[in-house]
Predict the structure.
Amino acid sequence: MTETDQSTTDQTTGGGSRPLPGAAAAETARRVFAESRLALLGLVITVGVVIVAAFAPVIAPYDPTAQNIAEAQLLAPSLEHPMGTDQLGRDVLSRVLYGAQLSIQVGVIAVGVAMLAGVPLGLVAGFYGGYTDETVMRAMDVVFSFPAILLAIAMVAILGQSTFNVMLAIGITYTPIFARVTRSGVLSVREETFVDAARAIGDSNASILARDILPNVVAPIIVQATVSLAFAILAESALSFLGLGAPPPAPSWGRMLSDSRNFMESAPWTALFPGLAIMVTILGFNFLGDGLRDTLDPQNDTESGGSI
Amino acid sequence: MGYGAYVLKRVLLIGPILFGVSLISFGALELLPGGPVEAAFGTRANPELVEQLREQYGLNRPFHVRYLDWVGDIVLNQDFGQTIRTERDVSTLLATSLPPTIWLAASGALVSVFIGIPAGIVSAVNHYEPEDYLATFLAFLGLSIPNFFLGLVLILVFSLYVPIFPSSGFVSPLEDPVEGVRTLVLPALTVGTAISAVVMRMMRSSLLEVFSEEYIRTARAKGLTRALVTNKHAVKNALIPTVTVVGLNFGYLLGGVVIVEQIFAIPGIGRLTLTAILTREYRVLQGSLLVIALLFALVNLATDLLYAYLDPRIKYD
């Protein structure tokens, strides 16, 4: 942990948000990774997973869906199959590598959906206040009233089972978090002088929101997005584990785990490697998110837990 | 705003939230294309039979009439309707599946406290020492291991390789304490691990904050040992925010319970919900969504009120 860890409990909320213009972004990033070794470790893991996802077709030794029940069913790890094979004779390593692709894709799009919906809602609620604020935030409270994973399960059940619906369901589930984070950021800069100044020179509300307020709430949104990626990937695996994720034969880590349950005792590698893949990926995003929070957003003192 | 007014405001706010929650639980499924009857029997069902069933269940009436009917029966008669195919009372299904879920959630919370608080104390007392880094790293591991993976690993190790604990089922600890606890151990560990990480981090940071207070320095200055000050003064004060964190993570706990019930074949409300989804029993799904959201809302309310009561510094807004 870094020195900033302790300061999170001392700082008072409100005010003090610094603008984060493009030029300073690189400097900020450098500062984050110089200050927090955990964030650096998280960055390394995350970049590693993304590279694996991007180059899965190049790295993977076999076709992840090619079956060979007759000759290669449930083979133990060997030089030929470093992570063994599954019940249908498919190479586990290749499926784990392709699984990264699916996880990252679902995670990024789901968080994108949540941001696209949640950030504008939070901006509007925080900026206009009053009834607008009440209506938007109470609606968000209702979404928050269901355990996240359960809401995602119910939505997939209603919308129908497909990769797209999984992304949509997870995205909707995480929308309130982005609305809340954005709103509280807006509240802390709404009364600042530069907002008054923009208003005085006759800028429109839309222009003030986009040019003056949004850049000042970017930092907590980035932190939230990183942490949410971990949960979105976890949620996708959980849905797949329950049989509600991307339909087979898509190589989803969660489904690989649930498939392995019947022969776990004799072929533990079918459970171990996809499970470790999920764990390392989530760990990477958690480290990165926590390090970013310590440096970028010291006022925010929420624990690094959250609901899936 | 005083505490009384805050309590009143929070209790009144439950109303609109419950209304929204019930509307979502009911509406999302009622508005399904084809409606609940076709959802249950599939699109190949005999159109005449579908029409007859729609008539029988009153599904031809307008939406708001059906909603009020549903909510009215629940509020007035605790009647959640009947399943379509087996014609069982949904209320009975919900009532029998609640106890295992509550046992599991409570024992998971207990596990998180028993692991998280000692780990947090060790971490804070040895601030920036190897013990602190180790505990923090383990906490991150605990947060990052998916419960469905942890559950499988625990089954593999403690049910299959070294058969100490059963891998599935539920026995109420009220009926058979020994067997009840034995069946709960692995599921409770699975549910509790992630939250124990959150509890540990909270205990660590609040204990560090307490350590910097005047009265702790005074106690140390008058010659009390470090261990005595930690145990007698600091821990007690650091417990307040830590215990509320368990309450605040109740939604996470309930979400975990849904999955863990599936892994360990525990006949709780999570398993009931999943079965309802797979068999398209919409009345069961509506009822269980509502009950879970209600449970969640009440625990959140209780946690907020408790926290506001215990910590006079928080602002009531």
